[in-house]
Amino acid sequence: MRMLSKRNNFQPLSWQNAQSSAFVRHLEIFSVASKFLFDLWWDNLVQNYSAKQRHRRAKWLVRQLLNLGPTFIKIGQSLSTRADLLPIEYVQELAQLQDRVPEFSSDLAISVIETELGKSISDLFETFEFYPLASASLGQVHRAKLYTGEEVVVKVQRPGLETLFNLDFEVVHQVLRIANWFPQVRKFNLEAVYQEFFQLLFQEIDYILEGKNAERFRENFQDYPRIKAPIVYWEYTTKRVLTLEYLPGIKVDDRETLQAQGVNLDEVIKLGICSYLKQLLLDGFFQSDPHPGNMAVNLDGELIFYDFGTMAEVKPVAKEQMIRTFFAVLRKDTDQVVETLVYMGLIEPISDLSSVRRIVRFLLENFRDKPVDIRAFEQVSEEVYMMFKQQPFRLPAQMTFIIKSLTTLDGIARALDPQYNLLAASQPFIQSLTVSDGSRKNLIMALAKQTANLIKNTFTAGNRTERLILRLEDRIEQGDLRFRVRSLENERLLKRIYLGVRTLINATLTGFSVLAAIGLLSTPYNKLAIIPFGLSGLFGLFFLRSAIALLIQERLDRLAEK
């Protein structure tokens, strides 16, 4: 066997060494969490909310997530798509976790392969590239060649992942139990989110399951020659080693290289959007993490999918209902879209869906005819937050996967063409619905009916004033109308009153703790005086923080009044 490439200069991180004890792992995680929370508290105290400061905090957080290992890298990758919840600076920094995960020792990778497959590396492969082709949070990929002549890639799992996940599983659970003491946190049912996340994480380290997912994906696209997925070589696959067909390609968002090779970028965008619509709507089985590292384009302009460890399932939609939903999007019919989402199990059918309708209406109004720019969510982040605060509502896991996938696909499409249009890109998929099977006649009739309704609605909508009145009437009937009156002077006054009361309470608690400690010193229980003395120090810090915040607020108010 020929060993290709020289050995890599490997510098392991702490979690890549022998597994830490539970106590050490607890200490590592809690120290990072405490430091980050303290930094946020300090920024809040000194009123430092600048973009530069947020970038600095986000960079530090990314470094710590890398040091903490795969569990927290995966958490960071998931958060990198939540621009509706996080400041844009954090989203940008967390997105780099897709590409910055360090590889582990290739000697260790070979050891895992030989242990799992029961043969030496020279007996298994004619050639094997020592340096990894790619590295991810859960494993790394080496290129190789079988003695039968096939070019393959060997995906090797990081050693000790299951042990590490079990440790992190317990630590994160403890943090959640503490967080659930607070009613503001408890109402969001984070326990269920936690269970979903770790269940998927343990599924992702089962390469047998990933191989089955890859085969199912290939079968779903066997009649679509422009969509490629690798063949699984089962005789070289175990729970921790996965051997796949080598399908080289250009990274899907590498616009310059694709253009240099003469690849049609519009066709690539259409392939990506339509293939995902098919996965989601027809197959009900979709790749929930389609980031650029998991997709590539070959020189023929064909789209290649690589990673099948994070697949999700939803209830497929009947084609007639799918057509109705597409036209509902064109008409901005919020109720029809919400009805379809409930049918697919992507929204929980609770009694009051008014908050969900408002979010869907916002998306239809703002993003139907243009790309989803994540910066636009900054304009409505407060509104969305208020909705969820007034009516706690947890989206099912499948819906969060779809949102993550759509925002990722949108980012890829915008990298290729900043002016692309989602509806235009999905046209080939919509057209394919009417020619794919024996129900073509019914589908064409449904398409004609929906087209007629769209034309009718367009020409009978009335003038702008009439449309506004009808929309206002509709929102009143659905209970979606909200009035908001703001008085900046009153808001500033109320904030000063709140800070003053908080300062007074903290001063009172500090004084009471000191008096209690002094009183205990003159009793047989004088050793217990350390407790109120400690509390007095804590309340003193709270008092100092409140007093400084009050002084800053008063100075800001004076400046605003000038």
Give the topology, please.
Elements: E1 2-4, H1 22-45, H2 51-68, H3 70-79, H4 88-94, H5 106-117, H6 121-124, E2 127-129, E3 134-135, E4 139-145, E5 151-157, H7 161-179, H8 183-186, H9 190-204, H10 207-220, E6 227-228, E7 241-245, E8 250-251, H11 255-260, H12 265-283, E9 285-287, E10 295-297, E11 303-305, E12 311-313, H13 319-331, H14 334-343, H15 354-367, H16 377-390, H17 397-416, H18 422-425, H19 427-433, H20 440-459, H21 464-478, H22 488-521, H23 530-561
Parallel strand pairs: 1-2, 6-11
Antiparallel strand pairs: 2-4, 3-4, 4-5, 5-7, 8-10, 9-12, 10-11
Helix pairs in contact: 1-2, 2-3, 2-4, 7-9, 12-17, 13-14, 13-20, 14-15, 22-23
Organism: Gloeothece verrucosa (strain PCC 7822) (Cyanothece sp. (strain PCC 7822))
Keywords: Membrane, Transmembrane, Transmembrane helix
Protein name: ABC-1 domain protein
